[in-house]
Every structure is written in structure tokens, then in C-alpha cells.
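Service request form, structural biology core

Requester: graduate student, group of Dr. S.
Request type: structure prediction, single chain
Budget code: on file
Notes: please return the result as C-alpha cells.

Sequence provided:
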Amino acid sequence: MHAELISAIRRATKAMQRASLATKFDSNQPRIPPGNEDGGQWTDGGGGSASTPRSRPRPTAAASSGAPASSWKLQTREKIVGGERTLHVGPNGARIASERRVGIHTGTSTSRHSVLLPDGSGLKVENDRFGVQRIFDRSGNLLSTARWGRNGPEEIGTAQPAYFDDRPKRYVTIPIPQTIAALELYRWYLSSQVSGGLPVLGFRAAKFTGKERGLAPTYVGAVAEEDVDFACPRHQEVRGLTTAFANELRPLGMSPQVFGTAVHTRLKDEIQERNDPALKTEHSYWKAEQELGKEKLPRYGLTGTLRVDVLEEVSKNTVCVYDIKTGKSSFSLARMKEIVGSVHRHFPNSTDFFLIEVRPD
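Core staff response, request fulfilled:
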């Protein structure tokens, strides 16, 4: 039944989708030059002012169709000089103590986030006024130092981070609890309480011999949209396609599960038809299981439970991963490992990953 429904959706919306995409996307559409306040954002075509960015409001997880409200609970909030200090508790028992300040004279912001897991492990993430992020373990050992640049997280300094050993640079790993702590911080950034940019999780993954994979977070935070676009040039295109398909399919009155499958199917078909070697789609079993429930997967099969990620190769070693969401699935260590395996199937030399959630506008 679901296969027939999806087939009907494809036939009914194919012409409409083609016409819609022709008007919505222009790869040559100008952007405001970097260095301006709105640098990197798309500008209106035609008679629009080159200095006026195109408005594209960002849906949060709580606001998007089918998405859950934030499950992070605010426990305490207090004012401090130049900012505030908060404590949030997550659904898995993780605690995030945050401190944010804005310089009185400089206007630049700094932040510090301490993530504590129920087992006592965790990490600390500090962002200074120069845009440098440092990640420490709970004992204060430095794990990484980076600044988000035009190509994503750029390592800074010559000091050797704590998680490196004497193997080649691509073979790195940190304890799993610290990786989980980074995932909790990323989920917190995705929650409704946090704003100020697009949440991004950067991590390095090495494909070892056998089944072992090393994982190490390189950046966790909210990044200005124009900076994400410079590092991941197809971000706006993937987001626009997702939104276009969702807007076309919503009036058909499908259930949330079938709607999600239809959007993911249309996106997969469109990208596969382009036959672009740098842009791929990959099935996600874990997203399907979270949104539909494990018991429904054997009943419906792949056609009725399709969920995909979009992978963009931006360099020989770097891939932007667009986590397409229309429902309630969250991000987990299992999903992180699934993504690494998916990327290495298409781009085996990749070691650096930038994860960006994409929901329809």
C-alpha cells in the first residue's frame, strides 16, 4: 500500500516539482560579499538591493512540523556581570552548565559549557571573544583547539591535543563518554532554548582496519549561517529542495510517517537524477527506526520507511552531512557511527565531517 501511495505521489507532483524548482533555485544567484555584516547570505535578484539579504527564517526543532518540543529542562538561571549562567538537564540525565557574557566595551561574546553525564564523565567547551573554541575533558586536558573558518573548523596552534597518539593524524580517538558528551551539547544547541546561529557538530573519524572507528569532536556550537554556507556550499540548495518538496506534499493530507517518507523519497530521486559525484544520498536505518518504531520496519519495508542523509564532498578529506528531518528522530552515537560508515562508502578518504540538521522552512 505504501509503495503504491508513494508511486502516486511521484506521478502527481513531478511536473509541479520541476516547475517549482525552476523558480526557487539559481546556483548563480549573488551573495553579499564576505566582510559585510550580512556577508555570504543570498540576495534578491532583479531590482533588489545588493546589500539586502534574502530573508530565510530558521525553523527550530520545536517549531517544525512533526518535531518534538524541547526536552531540555531549565533548572536554574542567574544574572552575572555581562551575561547569565544557566543549568539545563536533558532527557538522558545529562547536565549542561552554561555561562555567557558580552563584553561591555567590545560587544563580543564569550561562552563556557560544562557537560556532565550521569556516569560522571563529560567535557568542557570554551568559546573566546576571538572565535576560538577549546574542548577539554573533565580533568582539564585539552582535546582540541579550533576556529570556524571559511572551510569549517581550522585547528590552531602547535600543541598536541590530548587525544592524539603517535599514529598518523587521521587515526585519532577519544573515550566514548566524551564523544557522547559532545553529542549531548549538540542536541542542546538544537533545542528551542538556544539561538544565534545554525547548530553544527564537527567531528573527525578514522577508518581503522577491521570494524573499529575512531571518533573525536572538533567543533560543537552555533555558527552564523553565512559561515556555514561558505564551508558547505550546497547547504542552501539542499535546504531549499527539502522545503519545496515539503510544501508541495503537505496539502495531500498524509500521515506524518508517510509525509516524511514522501519528502525523503522526492529528495533522493532529485539528487540521484542529477548524477553529481560530489552530492550523494544514503539511507538511514536509525532515523527510520526512531520516527516509526522498530516494530513497524519489517511490516512496511524500505519503501514505507525511507529516511536519507545528504552527503556533500567539499574536499578530498571533508564531507558536509545534511541530516534531513521531518519528524521526531534525534541524534545519537549510533547515528554518528552510521554516518561515518555511509560517508566512507561514498568518499573513503574522508576524515572530517560537519553535521547540519535540515528541516523544512
